[in-house]
Amino acid sequence: MPEPTSGAAPRCVVLLPTYNERENLADIVPAILAAAPVDVIILDDNSPDGTGAIADQLAAGNPRIQVVHRAIKMGLGAAYLDGFARALDQGYDRIIEMDADFSHPPDRLAELIRHSEQADLVLGSRWVAGGGTRNWPWRRRFLSRGGSLYARTLLGVDIRDLTGGFKCFRREVLESLDLDAITSTGYAFQIEVTYRALKHGFRIIEMPIIFTEREEGTSKMSRRIFLEAVVAVPKLRLELRGRSGISEP
Q1: Is residue 140, in this structure, part of any structural domain at all?
Q2: 3-state secondary structure the chain
Q3: Among residues 158, 181, 195, 244, which one has the fewest Cβ atoms lying within 10 Å of its Cβ?
Q4: CATH number for the domain harbouring residue 99
């Protein structure tokens, strides 16, 4: 369990997977760097729209920004697993997941990190008191809330937002998980990583956020990603039986 921090501040990094995010990247990276004392690792899956070149321009001469050019589009989960390994290898103490399209609020980064002093994993949650969504159609809200309810019920946990992707891990969490065993992508990836952390006994809290629908670019949500989560959840329950708790900050 985490203890109060002392001495040097933790080294923090934001993992930013990208695929066709040229409209957002040049704005989101400076916003992240201004919001909190973090570095950024951009993980670009060979975007055909030139996102990788924009990433290189942002990183030129800025030691707080790294760019990883991945050869092909392999999905969100694969990008994050790559980023986890790099962040751990480079000695970061806090590893943060975040979307590149302003859906996750950069101005909440400092608070997300601060909560990690009392928890092993902090989730930016849409479905706790004070959280919510902005500019989402009702079908999208229904899928998200329904997906979290489905996973929460089958897995027997109390987390309200299992599919969210705005997260801060203490490095000890990722060091303890068998990352090679994780094969999910999309919604299922977020569910699986959080559930595995719970099964290892780590303390998780949910921090309310307002999730804003992207204004630029195209959503990566698809029917295949949703159906993957539907199938993955019962498989997870069979693999990792038991029940764990959750608390809010």
Answers
A1: yes
A2: CCCCCCCCCCCEEEEEEECCCHHHHHHHHHHHHHHCCEEEEEEECCCCCCHHHHHHHHHCCCCCEEEEECCCCCCHHHHHHHHHHHHHHCCCCEEEECCCCCCCCHHHHHHHHHHCCCCCEEEEECCCCCCEEECCCHHHHHHHHHHHHHHHHHHCCCCCCCCCCCEEEEHHHHHHCCHHHCCCCHHHHHHHHHHHHHHCCCCEEEEECEEECCCCCCCCCCHHHHHHHHHHHHHHHHHCCCCCCCECC
A3: 181
A4: 3.90.550.10
Domain count, the chain: 1
pTM of the predicted model, to two decimals?
A: 0.88
Residue 33 lies in a domain: yes
Per-residue confidence (pLDDT) for residue 244, from 0 to 100: 46
Mean pLDDT of successive 10-residue segments in the chain (249 residues)?
A: 65 97 96 98 96 97 96 89 98 97 96 98 96 85 81 90 95 96 84 93 97 65 61 73 50
Token pair recorded at residue 121: 């994993």
- For residue 120, being part of any structural domain is answered with yes
Strand partners, 129: none
Domain extent, residue 95, equals 12-239
**CB atoms near residue 187 (< 10 Å):** 28
